Amino acid sequence: MPALVLVGAQWGDEGKGKATDLLGGSVDYVVRYQGGNNAGHTVVIGDQKYALHLLPSGILSPNVTPVIGNGVVIDPAVLLSELAGLNDRGIDTSKLLISGNAHLITPYHRTLDKVTERFLGKRRIGTTGRGIGPTYADKINRVGIRVQDLFDESILRQKIEAALHDKNQILVKLYNRRTIPADLVVEEYLGYAEKIKPFLADTTLVLDEALKANKVVLLEGGQGTLLDVDHGTYPFVTSSNPTAGGACTGAGIGPTKIDRVIGILKAYTTRVGSGPFPTELLDEDGEALRRIGGERGVTTGRDRRCGWFDAVIARYATRVNGLTDFFLTKLDVLTGWEQIPVCVAYEIDGKRVEELPYNQSDFHHAKPIYETLPGWTEDISKAKSFAELPKNAQAYVKALEEMSGAPISAIGVGPGRDETIQINSFI
Ligand code: GDP
Ligand code: IMO
Ligand code: MG
User: Fold this and answer.
1) Does 44 sit in the ligand 1 pocket, CB within 6 Å?
2) How far is Cα of residue 63 from the mean position of the Cα atoms in its chain?
3) Which residues line ligand 2 (CB under 6 A)?
4) Are domains 3-91+202-422 and 103-198 of this chain identical in fold?
5) Residue 1: pLDDT above 80?
6) CATH number of the domain at 3-91+202-422, please?
């Protein structure tokens, strides 16, 4: 049985956590392949609400083996506190597997993330301040610390000392901050080793064997397509590849093993942090979307910027991820609007543009061209089939499908596991 990838089709927070959890009953492995605790994935099961940051959302399904792949960056303190939090709530986390090749976020990465953002002032990215960017920078720069380094004190010490040699100079001379003593970091990180050891695994081998044994592997992305460091709205992006290609490198699975790529797509658009957002609403409609959709960040508690659905972005997500399906989420939030505008193209310097401009300055100038679709007032949260949706909600979904370039195979009508209309099965 091949692997499936689940990827955010917009700027994150599309409802990936719910989608992963929903599939939890039918998959054997759920793998996080990139990002770190910048992610905030909410899962609602009955009257229980879980906020996951680093752990794959599949951890809540008893038969799933959750895996943190090599492409993830791990803050060990966050990992252990998230595990403890779930254990306290009766969730068994003992099956978790962690790649020894995943990189570790350290206190100096978190500090550098914050001071560089402050230094950027108005040009700041609006990061989550979790040390994500500096940790990936060190990985690419070949001075990162990996999970496996925790188990060899002399290597760990050597690497941390080498990294701090430069970084302390930068902290003191450039940012007027105190130095971070290597000894303190080494001591703290050695303390994590024994706690993390039981989870350590050769995850690419485990996943290869699972696929050979016909197990179902779900690769769960953090963030979203437009936050991808290569394909997103650079520099207002995260420092990893949430797009489907990132699933291969971040989990160590070859592309031939993947046969389905599901884009999670909100029925409107949100974004957290800085950067261009053509359909952003700064009026009472934006405020209403935020209020009704509960659009507040799970990780940083920041209000999410809200706007209408943008079909140009959805088409782009289909293209760069090779999407086979969409999971349309939060359709229920649009209930009650008389008319719902949908962005079908942009106007850039007087010209109509149908595809996402590859030039960043053009994207900054893009003005949405809207088509307005009729809304509905009926409560749709109990709908179990497409036929049960009001005619105008059906037409909205069909219009989005046609504009976005891949079939909408599931529709979210509420945050709960059961509040989903399945049109085509994913597995
Ligand atoms: P993620 O980061 O992609 O996992 O998404 P978040 O969890 O950050 O944000 C999505 C929010 O929408 C969460 O609060 C979910 O519980 C909620 N949600 C997901 N799907 C639906 C849906 O279909 N309808 C409603 N009303 N809420 C949903
Ligand atoms: P999930 O997985 C929404 C945004 C930040 C910032 C930019 C870079 O819940 O969808 P970073 O800390 O990654 O260097 O910040 O990316 N960002 C997210 N926005 N959802 C997320 O995750 C995000 N993770 C990072 O707000 O603009
Ligand atoms: Mg989120």
Assistant:
1) yes
2) 23
3) 8, 11-13, 38-41, 125-128, 130, 132-133, 222-224, 227, 238-239, 272-273
4) no
5) no
6) 3.90.170.10
Unique residue bearing structure tokens 């392949």: 33
- Residue spans of the domains in the chain: they are 3-91+202-422, 103-198
Give the 3-state secondary structure of residue 32. Answer: strand
Nearby residues of 97 by Cβ (< 8 Å), 6 or more positions away: 65, 66, 67, 68, 199, 200, 201, 203, 206
Q: What are the pLDDT digits (tens) for 132-172?
A: 999 999 999 999 999 999 999 999 999 999 999 999 999 99
Q: Which CATH class is domain 103-198?
A: mainly alpha
| Residue 36 CA, ligand 3 centroid: distance in Å | 12
Count CB-CB contacts under 10 A for residue 355. 11
Percent of the chain whose pLDDT exceeds 70: 100
Minimal-distance CA residue to ligand 1 atom 9: 13
Ligand 1 and 15: CB distance under 6 A: yes
Q: Which of 21, 28, 41, 103 is catalytic?
A: 41
Is 192:150 a contact under the CB 8 Å cutoff?
yes
- Does residue 266's CB lie within 6 angstroms of at least one atom of ligand 1? no
pLDDT digits (tens, 9 = 90+) for 380-420: 999 999 999 999 999 999 999 999 999 999 999 999 989 99
Residue entry with tokens 């003005």: 367
Residue 259 designated active-site: no
CA pair distance 259, 218, nearest whole angstrom: 11
Give yes or no: 13 in active site.
yes
**Is the alpha carbon torsion for 351, 264, 266, 55 positive or negative?**
negative
